[in-house]
Amino acid sequence: MYIYNVTVNVDEAIHQQWLKWMKETYIPKMLQTNLFTNARILRVLVDEEMGGMTFSVQYYAKDKTSLERYYLDFDQDFRAKEKQHFSDNIVSFTTELQVLSEH
After folding, report:
1. Residue 5 neighbours by CB distance under 10 Å
2. Is 10 helix (H, G, I), strand (E, B) or coil?
3. CA pair distance 5, 39, nearest whole angstrom
4. What is the C-alpha separation between 27 and 78, in angstroms, rounded?
5. 13-16 long-range CB contacts below 8 Å, 24 or more apart?
6. Is the residue at 103 inside a domain?
7. Known InterPro entries for this protein (predicted)?
8. pLDDT digits (tens, 9 = 90+) for 28-68
9. How far apart are CA 71 and CA 55, in angstroms?
10. What CATH number is given to the structural domain containing 39?
11. What does the pLDDT look like over 68-77, one tens digit per residue?
12. Whole-model pTM?
């Protein structure tokens, strides 16, 4: 299993709006690609020097092929949609994680 992890710092003034949009619009559309089995939003418990609130959004893919297909077919469009809605109020970076074991 692979996790496509997006860490996002959101301006505190709009974090509720961002969370609502993520839950009601963005994540459902990500799951509709059928490349991810599920997703979750986590709050990163850290005080940011630059302010804002930090979240980790994790999308679970069953294999590397699904993740690579997402990058090729969907990634640019999804990033553009988020930028269009929230422009300079968010800063994000992505990481790929591979699940080695679960207990």
Report:
1. 15
2. strand
3. 10
4. 10
5. 13/89, 14/86, 14/89, 15/52, 15/53
6. no
7. DUF4286
8. 999 999 999 999 999 999 887 878 999 999 999 999 999 99
9. 21
10. 3.30.70.100
11. 999 999 999 9
12. 0.92
